[in-house]
């Protein structure tokens, strides 16, 4: 283990001044990554060369709910002697570890603990999880495994005659309740941990096999201990650990302190980029930096200011102590870690606008009563998905100027470009409640939208948050709760009129579509610190989504991207009006996509304004991004909402990732015109005001016939409670029916058979409507989820 040998040599010379007189558990490997035989060991520390008192034991206590508090195994340490470096280590024969100079090592004469005369218990291996390890002196000898330290199973130690020198608990998540009796408890069971009231409980997301003190620590906090899972033999430390500074290390030496840090003090001349995660850094002079830094413990001394500038970052793997001042400027990044001590710093962010246009934001610090909406300015709103949507959604926006800001929740604010928070940086796992409310008063297309925010003072990877196809090893369950897309507000003019050309930047695994400010913003896959955004809860009900530390991205928190794409086969189309409104869609082609809804590849349309919306359809619902199979002759239907009648232009913005001979065709079903998009990049057409106008068909790889299903796929237009149907050719019509989503008939009309090209049907915008047209060519059905 790095630094151990060097430190052991120093301790051999200076032992009297560096070894604690306290009896302590130092290190235990109880579940090596491989066979337990020969690789387990345990280590304790005390006064150099001293002899351990009679009836002193290292005891392993059951933590599972079937026999909580029972002694599983005990090692009698009576009469054993600490080495000259203050360490005593017990190992198994055949182990491959080296032993630190000055340590006293006792090795079993066989390949398991039954060969060590100090063993009490029948197991040949040290008990795996769940367990508590106690270093105790008892008033009488422990004679067997029948001893129970918690006879009434209440989580409190009630055995008499035991003096506990040191203790730690390591619990898994196999049972609904796990029992821990240590001063510090690492548990993978966040809801069912039963323990003494005075214990420090650290929740982890793994089952470990190894625990060690950090250096020569003597306390019972997460800054004193290192707990990790293991793989391979003798012991490779996995990335699953309580201290990320030591992930991927290997245990190679026993009998001495582990994870020892050197100290660096910045006095104004040192090069901070030379400091690494094995060093403790003290700031003793004012310093500003835009470098990427890391250290273990960080102390900012009284009277000094440490500033992280735009594009700069620092990872503090251990504790953060601020006796002076720490400022993380807009675009700067601070990483701290859950369970580690941290103190209040100041975090700044330049939002997108200083005028009346809105930005979506959130707090990067722990919630408290002094952090309210007023920190965001005079105009601050939260979003309540459970409120009735009404005619335009305004009723869902609630005045939040005096609200205490909730961690992970998003807020809309205006007229304050620079926002600042002072508090303890958020770290660890953060959960946020989300809802999907149903009811006749709320249209399906407007349900499930929740405004959340990045809770960390560091950027996070959007694909990790959403658990998209191809994301990393993050184990959150957000993919079971929310759709696979995020929506960032791109305000194009609400300083002049509400909803004036504002829209949502939409992103998923296929790519992104922009709002009206496409030339000034782009999203590259990282959600910046304090950035607010919408997600959509997939199914009706309530749930939670999770933010965790594994989502955080190094760097990429700069102002220019407040708002990593894998190369895709995509076509980006836009629709614009003569009076300046603009909207985009993105169609992607992938071998793993289907024609139906795919969580990672299809992003629903979140309507940002009433003036112009452009979308594709999947099963009657509107989508901003659609993924389709990577096949020839693949078609999709496109539609739009137009706030006013007039001239509109459909433009091919870009075609990416496809061979030059791949062709696209666009058919206008209203005029029967077919456009070869390899020959033209845009065309202009006239349109009347109305929503849900399914006027266009896009085809990749095959020419669309001008007679394509004109009867089976008429053009629709919704205006003021009426659905206009245009067949484009004369069709013999017998009548129509309108049903709700359950199939209940809302109303119907029969008519004498006559040929017509256009008809009008009254519909109910408060329901999902299934419209059935009865014609001589058969019944034509379509589902509608009207946005107006």
Tell me about this structure.
This protein is mainly β. 3% of the residues lie in helices and 42% in strands. The protein has 2 helices and 59 strands. The strands form 14 sheets. Strands 44, 45, 46, 47, 48, 49, 50, 51, 52, 53 and 54 form an 11-stranded mixed beta sheet that branches. Strands 7-5-2-1-15-16-17 form a 7-stranded mixed beta sheet, with no helix packed on it. It has a 7-stranded mixed beta sheet with strand order 8-4-3-9-10-12-14, with no helix packed on it. A hairpin with a 5-residue loop joins strand 56 and strand 57. It starts with a helix and ends with a strand.
Tell me, briefly, the overall form.
elongated
What share of residues is helical?
Answer: under 10%
Give me the number of helical elements.
2
What does the radius of gyration come to? Answer: 33 Å
Overall pLDDT level: 88
What is the end-to-end distance?
66 Å
Strand coverage percent: 35-45%
Largest sheet: 11 strands, mixed
Topology:
Layout: H1 4-18, E1 24-29, E2 41-45, E3 56-62, E4 71-76, E5 87-91, E6 98-99, E7 104-107, E8 119-120, E9 131-138, E10 162-171, E11 178-179, E12 184-187, E13 193-194, E14 200-203, E15 210-213, E16 225-231, E17 236-241, E18 253-254, E19 262-266, E20 279-283, E21 287-289, E22 292-295, E23 298-300, E24 305-308, E25 313-316, E26 320-322, E27 325-328, E28 333-335, E29 345-350, E30 359-361, E31 379-383, E32 397-399, E33 411-414, E34 418-423, E35 430-436, E36 449-453, E37 460-461, H2 462-466, E38 486-490, E39 503-507, E40 512-513, E41 526-527, E42 532-536, E43 541-547, E44 569-577, E45 582-590, E46 603-604, E47 612-618, E48 621-629, E49 634-642, E50 646-656, E51 664-668, E52 673-676, E53 682-687, E54 690-700, E55 715-719, E56 722-739, E57 745-762, E58 769-775, E59 778-784
Parallel strand pairs: 5-7, 6-18, 10-12, 11-13, 12-14, 19-20, 20-23, 21-24, 22-25, 23-26, 24-27, 25-28, 27-29, 45-48
Antiparallel strand pairs: 1-2, 1-15, 2-5, 3-4, 3-9, 4-8, 9-10, 15-16, 16-17, 29-34, 30-33, 31-32, 31-33, 35-43, 36-42, 37-41, 38-39, 39-40, 44-45, 44-50, 46-48, 47-48, 47-49, 49-54, 50-53, 51-52, 51-54, 55-56, 56-57, 56-58, 58-59
């Amino acid at each position: 283990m790095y630094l151990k040998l060097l430190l052991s040599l120093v301790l051999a010379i200076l032992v009297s001044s560096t070894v604690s007189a306290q009896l302590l558990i130092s290190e235990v490997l109880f579940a090596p990554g491989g066979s337990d035989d020969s690789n387990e060991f345990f280590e304790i520390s005390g006064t150099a060369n001293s002899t351990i008192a009679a009836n002193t034991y290292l005891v392993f206590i059951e933590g599972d709910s079937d026999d909580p508090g029972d002694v599983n195994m005990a090692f009698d340490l009576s009469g054993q002697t600490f080495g000259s470096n203050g360490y005593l280590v017990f190992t198994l024969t055949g182990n491959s570890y080296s032993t630190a100079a000055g340590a006293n090592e006792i090795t079993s004469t066989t390949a398991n603990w039954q060969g060590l005369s100090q063993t009490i218990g029948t197991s040949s291996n040290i008990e795996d999880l769940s367990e508590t390890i106690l270093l105790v002196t008892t008033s009488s000898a422990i004679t067997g495994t029948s001893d129970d330290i918690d006879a009434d199973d209440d989580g409190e130690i009630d055995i008499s005659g035991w003096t506990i020198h040191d203790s730690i608990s390591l619990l898994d998540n196999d049972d609904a309740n796990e029992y821990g009796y240590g001063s510090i408890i690492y548990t993978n069971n966040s809801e069912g941990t039963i323990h003494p009231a005075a214990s420090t409980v650290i929740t982890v997301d793994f089952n470990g096999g190894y625990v060690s003190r950090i250096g020569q620590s003597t306390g019972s906090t997460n800054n004193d201990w290192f707990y990790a899972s293991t793989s391979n033999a003798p012991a490779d430390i996995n990335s699953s650990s309580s201290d990320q500074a030591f992930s991927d290390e290997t245990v190679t030496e026993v009998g001495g302190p582990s994870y020892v840090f050197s100290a660096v003090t910045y006095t104004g001349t040192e090069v901070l980029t030379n400091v690494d995660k094995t060093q403790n850094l003290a700031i003793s002079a004012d310093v500003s930096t835009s470098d990427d830094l890391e250290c273990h413990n960080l102390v900012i001394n009284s009277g000094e200011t440490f500033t992280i500038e735009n594009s700069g970052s620092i990872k503090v793997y251990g504790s953060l102590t601020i006796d002076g001042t720490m400022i993380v400027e807009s675009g700067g990044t601070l990483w701290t870690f859950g369970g580690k001590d941290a103190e209040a710093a100041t975090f700044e962010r330049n939002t997108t606008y200083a005028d009346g246009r809105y930005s979506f934001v959130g707090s990067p610090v722990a919630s408290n009563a002094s952090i309210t909406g007023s920190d965001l300015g005079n105009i601050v709103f939260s979003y309540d998905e459970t409120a009735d949507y009404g005619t335009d959604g305004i009723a869902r926006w609630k005045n939040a100027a005096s609200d205490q800001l909730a961690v992970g929740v998003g807020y809309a604010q205006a007229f304050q470009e620079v926002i600042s928070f002072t508090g303890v940086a958020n770290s660890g796992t953060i959960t946020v409640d989300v809802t999907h409310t149903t009811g006749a008063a709320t249209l399906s297309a407007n349900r499930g939208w929740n405004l959340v925010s990045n809770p960390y003072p560091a950027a996070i990877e959007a694909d990790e948050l959403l658990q998209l196809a191809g994301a990393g090893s993050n184990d959150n369950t957000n993919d079971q709760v929310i759709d696979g897309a995020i929506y960032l507000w791109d305000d194009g003019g609400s300083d002049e009129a509400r909803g004036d050309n504002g829209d949502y930047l939409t992103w998923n695994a296929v790519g992104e579509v922009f709002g009206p400010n496409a030339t000034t913003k782009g999203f590259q896959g990282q959600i910046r610190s304090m950035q607010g955004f919408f997600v959509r809860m997939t199914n009706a009900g309530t749930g939670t989504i999770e933010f965790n530390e594994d989502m955080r991205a190094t760097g990429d928190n700069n102002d220019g991207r407040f708002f990593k794409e894998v190369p895709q086969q995509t076509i980006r189309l836009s629709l614009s009006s003569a009076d300046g409104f603009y909207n985009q869609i993105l169609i992607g082609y992938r071998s793993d996509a289907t024609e139906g809804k795919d969580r990672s590849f299809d992003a629903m349309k979140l309507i940002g304004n009433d003036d112009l919306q452009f979308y594709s359809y999947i099963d009657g619902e509107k989508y901003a991004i659609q993924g389709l199979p990577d096949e020839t002759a693949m078609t999709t239907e496109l539609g739009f909402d137009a706030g006013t009648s007039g001239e509109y232009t459909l433009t091919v913005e870009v075609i990416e990732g496809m061979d030059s001979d791949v062709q696209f065709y666009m058919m206008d079903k209203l005029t029967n015109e077919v456009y070869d998009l390899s020959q033209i990049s845009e065309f202009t057409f006239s349109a009347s005001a109305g929503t849900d106008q399914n006027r266009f068909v896009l085809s990749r790889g095959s020419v669309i016939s001008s007679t394509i299903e004109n009867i089976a796929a008429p053009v629709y237009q919704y205006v003021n409670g009426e659905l206009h149907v245009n067949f484009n050719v004369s069709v013999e019509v017998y009548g129509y029916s309108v049903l709700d989503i359950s199939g209940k008939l809302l109303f119907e009309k029969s008519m004498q058979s006559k040929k017509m090209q256009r008809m009008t049907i009254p519909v109910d915008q408060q329901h999902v409507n299934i419209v059935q047209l009865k014609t001589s060519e058969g019944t034509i059905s379509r589902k509608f989820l009207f946005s107006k």
